Amino acid sequence: MLTASSTADLILLRDNADNQAVVFSWTNPDYKLTTGISSQDVTYILQVDTAGKNFTSGNFQELSIARELKKVLTVKELNGILTRLLLNDGQAYNVDFRIKAALANGTAVPLYSNVVKIKVSPYLDVAIPVPTTNVLYITGDASPSSWTNDPPAAQKLTRVSLTEYNITMSFVPGKAYKFLSTLTKWQPQYGLKSGSGGSASSGDLGLNDNSPQYGSDPDAIPTPSEAGNFKITLNFRSGKYTVVKL
Questions:
Q1: Rounded Cα–Cα distance for residues 213 and 224 (Å)
Q2: Residue 56 domain boundaries
Q3: b or e along 52-74 (b: 16 or more beta carbons within 10 Å of the residue's beta carbon)?
Q4: Are 42 and 103 in a shared domain?
Q5: From the centroid of its chain, how far is CA 188?
Q6: 197 or 167: which carries more pLDDT confidence?
Q7: Average of pLDDT values for 127-155?
Q8: Domain tally, the chain
Q9: Same domain for 11 and 67?
Q10: Does 90 or 118 have the greater pLDDT score?
Q11: pLDDT by residue (tens digit) across 154-177?
């Protein structure tokens, strides 16, 4: 049996990130084998999904909790779960929670608790600030216009969502590129986070927006070692870029 400290509507705020959001508690399933109650370790998994999806949506989340009968979720932890569910910030969602219990050795069919429902509004949680202009352009000698802070419209990325952009480019080896969010200005500027050890295929995004936190230019991202068409994706939630050959 799963219970929550409160099922009242939750509006999550970044300023309260370290505060307690909700406490889930559940009873021991008391697995009974032919010899009586099992003494084996029980593994618990907190499952989270949007209401009506029956924990089968493509983004539903699971959080493992070994042997404990309680889980305290902070505002930041709960918001992170909802972020990975790809829920939009500032919107209220009906969210389902349940516990899956299983024996550590897998000898028994998993047991599932009742479902607890809570309406929750997440906030935008990103690893690196998104472009305030809602646009990005690629620049560098890997692009047709080379290094310029006024790239043409053809070098504008597609805005897939508030936190994701992509573009398909034809690359040759030995070149490099960055991204700009404001035409005719070199900052804000996005690239490879200095010292992070990224590569031509993936890495951490770096930013210079002239703020104290992000105040030096990131490194340029190198092109792959073979020529071809590549899809570059920037994910501001994860703070990562990925490059995939098409």
A1: 30
A2: 2-121
A3: eeebeeeebbebeeeeeeebebb
A4: yes
A5: 22
A6: 167
A7: 96
A8: 2
A9: yes
A10: 118
A11: 999 999 887 899 999 999 999 999
